[in-house]
Amino acid sequence: MSAREEILARIRASLADVPAGDKGHVKWEYGRPTPNDDVLGRFVDMCVDYKAVVERVPAAQTGDTVAALLKSKDAKTVVVPPGIDQAWRAAIEKAGVQIVDDDPPRGHKELDAIDAVVTAAAVGIAETGTVVLDHSPDQGRRALSLVPDVHVCVVRADQVVSDVPEAVARLEPAIKAGQPLTWISGGSATSDIELSRVEGVHGPRKLLIVLAT
């Protein structure tokens, strides 16, 4: 018996008890959640595994936590997108960190001289420890999240999904609208053939996540 014949024989055997006329289709819903008893906990663990700093705080403390994280990295200047939450902005100003607006858009050299960036997020993925930006007004254009050395990113608890298919389903409106997507798993890092780790090659070296619950 050839391999092909063996495979077909196994398929016929597996369908032996299927009623006539039933093609045996498996019901599948793309984007359905993967069962997980603690999606937020998994998200935190996987982000930390990628060497990101994660602060899980009540939503009301988001602004103060953002400001504290900027101070912890000695950030003197921070660029913010035009749609940033005004409460976060007020907390940053109160902490004495100089805010640089991206209006009009700053050049790459200007962004490179700024210590940090603060953005919101579109989705957080628990299974991979990934944050996805769809560059809505509270996230700004891609250059903001790629050039400054420190990225403080706020993810709401209701934005955290179980895995990648569920995330893609959430991102469908942005995809159909032609918005760019940036997928971030930890700070930017790469290794050469000798496994020498180099940070900051493709984006910020430090990723600080505020998980607002």
Helix content: 25-40%
Supply Rg.
Answer: 22 Å
**CATH architecture identity:** 3-Layer(aba) Sandwich
| Structural class computed from helices and strand pairing | alpha/beta
Put simply, the count of helices is 8
Strand order of the largest sheet: 1-12-7-4-2-3
**Helix-strand pattern, N to C?**
HHEHEHEHEEEHEEHHEEEE
- End-to-end CA span: 59 Å
What's the mean pLDDT score? 89
Oligomer: single chain
Number of strands: 12
Strand content: 15-25%
The CATH class designation is Alpha Beta
Please provide a written account of the structure.
This protein is α/β, with parallel strands linked by helices. The chain has a single domain (34-212), classed as Rossmann fold (3-Layer(aba) Sandwich). The protein is built from eight helices and twelve strands. The chain has helices at 3-14, 39-49, 62-72, 86-94, 108-112, 142-146, 164-170, 172-176; strands at residues 53-57, 77-80, 98-101, 116-119, 123-125, 130-133, 150-156, 160-161, 182-184, 189-191, 197-199, 206-212. The strands form three sheets. A six-stranded parallel β-sheet has the order 1-12-7-4-2-3, sandwiched between helices. A hairpin with a 5-residue loop joins strand 10 (189-191) and strand 11 (197-199). The protein starts with a helix and ends with a strand. The mean pLDDT is 89.
